[in-house]
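Quick start: read one record
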Amino acid sequence: MKHFKPYTLILAALMMMAACSTDDYPENPLEIGNRLKFYATIGAPQQTRATGTTWEQGDAIGVYALISGTTLPEGIYHARENIKYTTATADGLFQAASEGIYFLDPADRIDFVAYYPYRETITNYSFPVNVADQSSPAAIDLLYSNNAVGADESNPLVNLNFNHMLSQLLFTITPGEGVSSLEGLTVTSGNLLVDGTFDLSSGTFTLGNTRQPVNLRLVHHDDGSVTASAILPPGQEMGTTPFFFTVNGMTFRFTMNNITLASATQYSYQLNLSTAGLTALNPNATITDWVEGNPGGEPIDLTPDEGEETPVTGTFLEESFASSQGDFTIYDVLLPEGGSYVWKWDNNGYMKASAYISGAKASESWLISPAIDLSSATGATLTFDHVINYADNMSNDQTLWISSNYSSGDPTSASWTPLTIPTYPVGNNWTFVSSGDIVIPAAFIGQANVHIAFKYVSNNEKAATWEIKNLLLSDGTPTDPGTDPGTTPVTPGLLFAGSDFEDWNAFLSSLNSFGLKNYAQQADGGMEGSKALSLIGDPLSGGNDYVFTATVPTTGSTLTGKSRIVFYLKGTSAKSLSINIYKGTTGYHVFNLGSYNQETVLDPTSSNNYTGNIDTGGDWMKVTLNISGLTDLATEAGKDMIALKIGRDAAYNLLLDNFTVE
């Protein structure tokens, strides 16, 4: 199965009415004259392989014969179930591998259920699906037919109309400016559901719970383009799962619109990779019934103001560890020799695990969340920041787990499921990185007693240090951004607490519940040797994105009686910045920087726009927002005050500093 085409199998009931000699084989049903054979075609008569253009020797289907008008399993016709039919040649003629299907009485009528690829063992008429390995599409492309009914000896041809039961993604990728070749390209997904079961009796598919990254199958073409494909279980939502395209040392990220994969459906995208960022020529996808033609549809160029993305809200658990351990508990399965703890809150504002006591020591310790109520949730996503130094085997020694039956005490008394951490730190420094989005498995959604645990293990050869902070478990429901008021006093002249980025905790406490995106970090190199906010989306920005939203301080709005907001900018970007200044009721005033290469006073405009690029020539440039005519600004503590936004799919390398009011 190579090219994923729709197809029809024609069941040729070639009844050999001339009886064979019963003296030769008196008990052998293979010699019964009215055995069935199957002739398979795909679309046009000369297209006969399930996903290619020809069948190959040894291809096999499984066929169930049913008394006409009945269903599996009650109606099986004389024990003729899961009968293997194979191709002996490439002409599409299928014959029984051993004992086949035949009419025992000329008056009998038979219905058929068939599937591909054949499995020797089918338990409870349930076909197991796992698409983690995409290297052989033929092995995972589940096909199914149940339309053929009422066959009898007088009807020599019975059409089996097969349908794809899974879904397919197809990316057509071309190199753009700054990307000379796609040689060495890899395409990997974030965590996707990869398993499930298909009920042959009802023709229905049930999603499993296993999530993991998937390596897409690549085909390189003579024109330099590449197609990347994946067959996936239907029913899963795709709006939060990124796909990573890595080539020539650069990684591009693309996230589909929020669609639910449908059975028998192919979703095609045309993507252009360039140093200015990834361009989706058809961001809404071309959806087909898994037929070839123009798999990417007509190219569609994204416009700069295409689709605003709204942050998510609905927090199930939030713990920064900035001031304490919070409600998390610690259970030490094995303490290191000479030590009294492994996990411990650090007054620098994070939880820290280490079993290095004058040398590495063996240990096992769990940091366990309080009970989390997901009974009313429709989905949940976990993120946190972490750093690991002196690492050995991080994916084994620093792991994340989830349970729905843990109560307290020893975690080994409960059942735990591992969660994949998409992004681990480098492992040899003290730089915090974001974990990436960790989607909570469907089995735990709707549960009222969910716990998440960080498990640390070490040995006498290696004992890493693991630090964790800024944990957030949210439901992903779109809503207006932010409700949590900042509580840190604001230094006179600053727009909000920490807006000079010297006091990082003060800055973070000024933000709404969505916090700060992981591509934004505190960095050296600010004005006059100070700290600054670094935006490096090179080229990993996932969309028209809220970098942060700061709220009105508890002491009142700093904008009252002011006429200007000023900040400073240094660096380059392939698209521009847009800023929202929020109103006291609903909505906001928009300021767009556009192409910014000289200092300018900006006036409000009607809508967000990211057209243009930024290049300050290596110097700090002043940006001034004219708010003198705005009389409806938010003043209530905790309400959104200002949001910084970046444009979709473009490379950013900027420093921002000193947001002040005048």
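The chain has four domains: 1-164, 167-302, 313-478, 504-661.
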